[in-house]
Design goal:
With 167 residues, the protein is an all-alpha fold. It has six helices and no strands.
Length: 167
């Protein structure tokens, strides 16, 4: 089971990484093209600024899910490092994860509501419903939720091992 989870999350990491790199590259190409056409040909594409902004937003949200999966987010670890490899440390880590799950749940629920509400409004240049742009909020929340559930399972299994005296 542990190997299967590692394979699934490694694939998810690879997919997220590919999407982030591709969308960032596409955004840079669009912005570079816009600057060149503006200063050389005195012309700008109507859709370029808006599409670059939307790509940036999606890259930031997906990148935040990727960072959560890599455990690269900022954290104050003074107390959890002092309690490392103890049962109290495991309980503290579970509490931290549960607080994060509350935030992620709010992100998923409210992001879903915002996506549905914004479907009536279309973006000025691209003409797509803004609900599609806002849909990245619940998608990212679901990805973060998956990573946090995996972390909680790992913490609980380590806590069980600690309570048995194996670590």
């Amino acid at each position: 089971m542990d190997k299967l989870l590692n394979i699934i999350f490694n694939r998810l990491r690879g997919i997220l990484y590919f999407i982030c790199v591709t969308s960032l590259s596409l955004m840079l190409i669009i912005i570079f093209t816009q600057v060149v056409t503006r200063y050389i040909f005195n012309y700008t594409f109507d859709w370029s600024e808006e599409s670059a902004r939307f790509l940036f937003v999606w890259t930031v949200f997906l990148g935040s899910a990727l960072i959560i999966g890599e455990k690269g987010h900022m954290a104050v670890k003074l107390l959890s490092d002092k309690l490392k490899n103890t049962l109290a440390g495991a309980v503290l880590n579970i509490f931290i994860q549960l607080c994060s799950l509350v935030f992620i749940s709010i992100l998923i629920v409210q992001g879903s509501k915002m996506s549905r509400v914004m479907m009536f409004q279309t973006s000025p240049a691209l003409g797509i419903p803004m609900g599609y742009v806002y849909s990245i909020i619940p998608v990212t929340g679901i990805l973060m939720l998956l990573y946090f559930i995996k972390d909680i399972i790992n913490i609980i299994s380590r806590a069980k091992a600690l309570s048995r005296g194996k670590e």
